[in-house]
Amino acid sequence: MSDAILHFTQELMSSWWIYLALFGFAALDGFFPAIPSETLVVTAGVFAATGGPNLYGVIAMAAAGAFLGDHLSYALGRGAGGRMLDRLEPGTKRHKMARWARKALEERGGLVLIVARYVPGGRTAVTLTMGAVRYPLRNFSFFAGLAALSWGLYCALVGYIGGKAFEDNPLKGVALGIGLALAVTVLVEVVRHRRRTPQPQVEAEPELVKTGER
Question: In whole angstroms, what is the distance from residue 155 CA to residue 149 CA?
Fold first, then answer.
């Protein structure tokens, strides 16, 4: 069974269609987070290490698709994003993510786009929010370009490392690459929640009044 899966995956990765798939999945992921674009880019990176698709082509198509997807989500936010975000039910995961996106945008500006790449659901929430609040398009495009390129490099190189580690067994390389990507995502989530956790206030002890007595 594994040999059949490996053969099918190798055939797919050696076809020029993989570049279109990388572009399309990365673009759709901008407003439909259920699309496993990261997994596809990592897998393509693994096979790039074993003679599959060209590594630079994988990075370029993934980044280009992500850049387009961000702009589509931004445009959706400018059109109806405000109403969509206001209708989110309080207490739900989407509502919490939208609140985080608004706060993070106020604190970090466009740099939040890069951080959101590694937060589950964060990318869509941030791009929709930036469109809804009419964040300047020129600035948005600049940060979206940085975010897309960093994400394409990260996913492809994580896969490439897995592919080099298991050149004789690409499926193990895929498992390693996806595992590394998940580990980074978990680390980002831990750091984000730790920063969001309020620190306990320590009350200062009252100073002793000096009476001058010895």
Answer: 10
Task: Say how far apart CA 66 and CA 141 lie, in whole Å.
Answer: 12
**How do residues 2-15 score in pLDDT, each as one tens digit?**
566 666 676 777 78
Retrieve residue 81's tokens.
């994003």
Find out whether 165 and 107 touch, Cβ atoms under 8 Å: no
**What residues have CB less than 8 Å from 167, skipping those under 6 apart?**
49, 50, 173
- 142 pLDDT band (50/70/90 cuts)? very high
pTM to 2 decimal places: 0.76
CA dist 43 and 118 (Å) reads 18
Beta strands in 25-162 (DSSP E): none
Q: What is the DSSP string of 60-116?
A: HHHHHHHHHHHHHHHHHIIIIIHHHHHTSPTTSHHHHHHHHHHHHHHHHGGGHHHHH
Residue among 100, 139, 134 nearest 120 (CA): 100
Per-residue pLDDT tens for 62-78?
Answer: 999 999 999 999 998 88
